Amino acid sequence: MSAVATTGGTAGGVNVRGLRRAFGERVVIDDLDVQVKPGEFVCLLGASGCGKTTLLRVLAGIDRADAGTVDAPSPNAVVFQEPRLLPWKTVLDNVRFGAESGRDARRRALEALAEVELAGHADVWPMTLSGGQAQRVALARALVREPRLLLLDEPFAALDALTRIRMQELVGELVRRHQPATVLVTHDVEEAVLLGDRVLVMAQGRIVRDVDASAIGRDAASAPALDRLRRELLGDLGVTT
Ligand SMILES: Nc1ncnc2c1ncn2[C@@H]1O[C@H](COP(=O)(O)OP(=O)(O)OP(=O)(O)O)[C@@H](O)[C@H]1O
């Protein structure tokens, strides 16, 4: 078994080598390698239960590696499928909760709220928000940390179709502006192809496909190339079209 090393605070991107994570007899991640460059947006696809969330948790430092090396920049921020807001705190205080305390905390929280187009909602209670608004607050709470690594675990899965499209655009824009290394876990091939500079497929505890999608445009002329990629990825996931 190789030495386990989890380091934070590196200037670079994510560098994972030989990662192993098991729960009892069940080996979920087995000799997995993955790299994500600073500013790169990587989407991670894989069948349910293949270990995507486990990988994200290890990258976030919430879960440990049993073997291998995990080099991940800090600070990191995680956005989950549910917004996980504290109901007894206002929207602004929920966002501030993500930040280091300090004189600038309030100003930075207000800026983050403005970035997710919720500047007018600073003083309201989370229970008065729609699902999409609540998820934007969760995004603001992540942004206020100025993460060098942004980890998104199916953040749009619970949203209606229209809200989902708007959120995808917003996240794409925010990542382009702030340039964290970003890993988005999704079940949605369409979403992965739309947002990812790279699309990874995870199976049998490893990354079994690593596709560079950055050269493919998202305009009408690129539709055939995008469709080919979509079909290939669906094939990897065992879906025939
Ligand atoms: N803390 C834990 N204790 C025991 N087993 C766990 C634990 N966390 C995850 N597992 C198991 O590890 C496997 C991978 O889980 P994980 O949540 O990483 O998969 P996933 O690919 O994110 O799935 P989904 O797409 O359904 O969210 C599952 O079999 C799960 O039951």
Question: Characteristics of this structure?
Answer:
Rossmann fold, alpha/beta, binds adenosine-5'-triphosphate, about 240 residues, 6-stranded mixed sheet, 7 helices, 4-stranded mixed sheet
Question: What this model shows, in words?
Answer:
The chain is of the alpha/beta class. It has helices at 52-60, 91-98, 105-115, 131-143, 161-178, 189-195, 223-236, and strands spanning 5-7, 14-23, 26-36, 41-46, 67-71, 76-79, 149-153, 181-185, 198-203, 206-212. The chain has a 6-stranded mixed β-sheet, with helices on both faces. Strand 9 (198-203) and strand 10 form a beta hairpin. Helix 2 (91-98) packs across helix 3 (105-115). The site of adenosine-5'-triphosphate has 10 residues, from helix 1. Residues 14-229 form the ABC transporter domain. Pfam families: ABC_tran (PF00005). This is ABC transporter ATP-binding protein.
Short description:
The chain is of the alpha/beta class and 241 residues long. The protein has 7 helices and 10 strands. The chain folds into 2 domains: 161 residues, P-loop containing nucleotide triphosphate hydrolases (Rossmann fold), CATH 3.40.50.300; 61 residues.
Beta-strand portion reads 25-35%
User: CATH topology of the largest domain, what is it called?
Assistant: Rossmann fold
Name the helicity range: 25-40%
Q: Could you spell the SSE succession in H and E letters?
A: EEEEHEEHHHEHEHEEH
Largest sheet: 6 strands, mixed
Annotate the secondary structure layout.
Blueprint: E1 5-7, E2 14-23, E3 26-36, E4 41-46, H1 52-60, E5 67-71, E6 76-79, H2 91-98, H3 105-115, H4 131-143, E7 149-153, H5 161-178, E8 181-185, H6 189-195, E9 198-203, E10 206-212, H7 223-236
Parallel strand pairs: 1-5, 4-8, 4-9, 6-7, 7-8
Antiparallel strand pairs: 2-3, 2-5, 9-10
Helix pairs in contact: 2-3, 2-4, 3-4
Bound molecules: adenosine-5'-triphosphate.
Adenosine-5'-triphosphate is lined by residues 23, 28, 46, 48-54.
GO molecular function: ATP binding
Organism: Conexibacter stalactiti
Domain ABC transporter: 14-229
